[in-house]
Amino acid sequence: MNSVHRNMYAQGLYRPRHGGMLAGVCAGLARRFGIGATMMRLIFVISLIVIPGSQILIYPVLWLLLPKEPAGSAYGTYQSPTDTMR
């Protein structure tokens, strides 16, 4: 499992310590793809409506596979672009 976490982290896929709502999966994906966390959550909800089912399985798997952002990371105080507009 540690090698999976190292590979995910090397690709920029990890759950941030700040900015997550449930487990930080959407916030981590948003950071990786350069969009706001709110937009990623909206995409997730819309995909649940359009293609129901698979996301319910994918989210917990990503929760387990995506490593938590290490303490003292350069991104420790991350705010998504939509969060900074408020």
Structure overview:
Residues 76-86 have low confidence and may be disordered. By secondary structure, the chain is mainly alpha-helical. The chain has helices at residues 2-10, 25-33, 37-50, 54-65, 81-84. It is 56% helix and 0% strand.
State the end-to-end CA separation: 38 Å
Task: Describe the sheet with the most strands.
Answer: none
Strand fraction equals under 5%
Q: Spans of 5+ residues with little confidence (pLDDT < 50)? A: 76-86
Protein structure class = mainly alpha
How big is the Rg?
13 Å
Task: Assign a percent range to the helix content.
Answer: 55-70%
The number of distinct helices, counting runs of at least 4 residues, comes to: 5
Shape: globular
Number of strands: 0
User: What is the arithmetic mean of pLDDT?
Assistant: 76
Spell the H/E element sequence.
HHHHH
Indicate the topology.
Elements: H1 2-10, H2 25-33, H3 37-50, H4 54-65, H5 81-84
Helix pairs in contact: 2-3
Summed up:
The chain is mainly alpha-helical.
Features:
single chain, 86 residues, mainly alpha, 5 helices, 56% helix, 0% strand, globular
